[in-house]
Amino acid sequence: FREETCSCGIFQLTGYPCCHACAEIGSKRARLDDYVVDFYKKLVYLKVYTDMIHAVPGAKDYIKSSFQPFKPPKIKKKMGRPKKLRRKGPNELQSNTSTRKGLTHTCSKCLQTGHNKGNCKNESHPKSKFFKANVAEHEEIPQGSQARPSAKSNKLQR
């Protein structure tokens, strides 16, 4: 384990042992300090701060300029109704429902979810309210029984 690497990559990235490395070092009864990079140690810290560190000047020490100060850009109000929901990024979870409150559409013609009767290309379901209307179009009048003539056919015969 002397090469100071771990499959998680944290040990190589940070310079001090991750939990996996600590477990391995502890099982070998070695000292953790031997596996930490030198710039985390106290001696290096004291060497860095031995010299005087001067304070950063404040706003009163700034040089006065003859130019006008910058102003933020004007906010342009977009035309049209504002969007109700924000646009989700490519890494965010996209919802598949295009409905309100997370409910899905159910087609009243084929009784399947995900679309409505306006764009349904499926056959009507037997339990649908559109099933009988669909059957009545294709149903033939039985022989021997007289069907009542409609108002349109009466006008045509006159």
Automatic annotation (TrEMBL):
<keyword id="KW-0862">Zinc</keyword>
<feature type="compositionally biased region" description="Polar residues">
    <location>
        <begin position="92"/>
        <end position="104"/>
    </location>
</feature>
<dbReference type="Pfam" id="PF04434">
    <property type="entry name" value="SWIM"/>
</dbReference>
<feature type="compositionally biased region" description="Basic residues">
    <location>
        <begin position="73"/>
        <end position="88"/>
    </location>
</feature>
<keyword id="KW-0479">Metal-binding</keyword>
<feature type="compositionally biased region" description="Polar residues">
    <location>
        <begin position="143"/>
        <end position="158"/>
    </location>
</feature>
<feature type="region of interest" description="Disordered">
    <location>
        <begin position="70"/>
        <end position="104"/>
    </location>
</feature>
<feature type="domain" description="SWIM-type">
    <location>
        <begin position="1"/>
        <end position="29"/>
    </location>
</feature>
<dbReference type="InterPro" id="IPR006564">
    <property type="entry name" value="Znf_PMZ"/>
</dbReference>
<dbReference type="InterPro" id="IPR007527">
    <property type="entry name" value="Znf_SWIM"/>
</dbReference>
<protein>
    <recommendedName>
        <fullName>SWIM-type domain-containing protein</fullName>
    </recommendedName>
</protein>
<keyword id="KW-0863">Zinc-finger</keyword>
<dbReference type="GO" id="GO:0008270">
    <property type="term" value="F:zinc ion binding"/>
</dbReference>
<feature type="region of interest" description="Disordered">
    <location>
        <begin position="131"/>
        <end position="158"/>
    </location>
</feature>
